[in-house]
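It would be a great kindness if you could assist me with a short task in structural biology. The matter concerns a single protein, recorded as an amino acid sequence and a row of backbone structure tokens. The record follows directly beneath this note:
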Amino acid sequence: MPILNENSFEFISRSPEQTRRIGNRLGSMLKIGNVVCIYGELGAGKTTFVQGIAQGWGSADMVTSPTFVLINQYCRADNAEMYHLDAYRLKDASDAEVLDLDDLIDRGILLTEWPERIQNTLPTEHLWIEMYWIADEQRRMVFLPHGQQYVELTSSIRQQIYKDAV
């Protein structure tokens, strides 16, 4: 379990819909070049969360897990791009080098599931989100920013989430 500090926070989602709504809030704040790493075991809600992110970002594309294709690309009406990478089938960071992640990040937003498998190829500055299964309808989400822009992003998403909860 991560150790929380003043820049990080945790949230307990009580339903898949709430997980999507939190993703929606985050997605509305993302910009080209942002990297979001989503850590969690199978069934932790990662793809549900990404569905919300893509919707909040403005994509009308159907979001599915890219486990077998490695990367799904989602687009907005303004031709902006979001990349959804599933590193589950990659053995290690050397497998990810052929994907040219730097180019994807330069062109769009990168969402990575199973980021721990390729951590050495990811930028040091990113938003790391850990998801844990608690019960059928509950997920624990921990937001851990790495870098000033992600500290600010985490602060904004925390304010949005807790403002709505009041």
